[in-house]
Amino acid sequence: MTSHPSSPSPRRAAARRAATRCASYAAALSLGLALTAAGLTGCSTAPRTPGAAGAGPTPSASAPAVPGVDSRERLSVDGGTREYLMHRPAAEGGGPRPLLIAFHGRGADAAQLREQSGLDKGAEARGMLLVYPEALGKAWGAGSAPSPQRPDPDADVRFTEALVGELVRTGRADAHRVYVAGFSNGGSMALRMAAQRPDLVAGAVSVSGELPTGAAAVKPTGPVPVLTVYGAEDPVRPLAGLPSPGPAAPGEEPVTPTMSARAGSEAFAAAAGAGAPVEEGRPGYDSTTWPPGPAGAKVQLLVMHGAGHTWPGSAMAPPEGFGSVSNALDASTALLDFLTAQKR
């Protein structure tokens, strides 16, 4: 593990201070989200017997804000039980649906990403099946290296594979339209799935998350359309990358080092055989697009002016020290438009 320099730059010191707020943010937010989670996901304080793969859903305790069917479901993986929230469109029929798996950030949970992103509404309008999986210990194994807290760095990859397999097997998801997205550590997890499972994923989007590097490096292995949305002034995971492990509380898993958002996009473009980048300035953000190569996989990077470690267009206020939310773009609409144009 590479250590931090003894005299960090002001930007790097700010990144450390902001990153350490993640845990306290999640704790403070949990009280505010507790009722929301109970209402939207059907959580219960009563103990439940772990279900087998494909076990029936626990229905929502109250009417969801978006038409459709919301549930908390369980899946048996690697001898244990994993949970996820699922939103199914109100309209029935039509066969297997496009599937979007959305990974929450470090220190957060599925209910928080649901509230932060507002993805349900857009997915409903597009007839998509939307799943928010829960991480173990509120963090995803986005990097390939083991740690004392995560001795098996591939567990979350297998969980995602099993989740896709179950939803395809039961006829709810279309195997040719499986997409992944995420925020922060969840965005890095989405990129890992795209990099290592191009035969499974038809498209991926990362918001404020970068491709792991160093000892935990993840390298793209095939063509996958990838969109990265990033804040130019991100103080937690800087646009230029986090070259050494980030700060963590005693006993917690270190924050995975990452390459720059640009370098990650270039890696996916190279794996896809994409064309030379096309730069374009737009109101409030800069766009770089690597046109599709022979495999038809486009790669795009959107850098939001003045934005921090946030979800553009979100109505949820970020914690102190995370920077500003850009309203120049609605990240949820952008990612859904990008993904639904893709098919494996």
TrEMBL record:
Please provide the record's keywords in A-Z order.
Signal
Cite the Phospholipase/carboxylesterase/thioesterase domain residue spans from the record. 160-240
Compositionally biased intervals (Low complexity): 48-65
**Region (Disordered) location:** 48-71, 270-293
Q: Name one GO molecular function term.
A: hydrolase activity
Record-linked PANTHER family? BLL1128 PROTEIN, UNNAMED PRODUCT-RELATED
Q: What is this protein called?
A: Phospholipase/carboxylesterase/thioesterase domain-containing protein
The organism named in the record is Streptomyces vinaceus
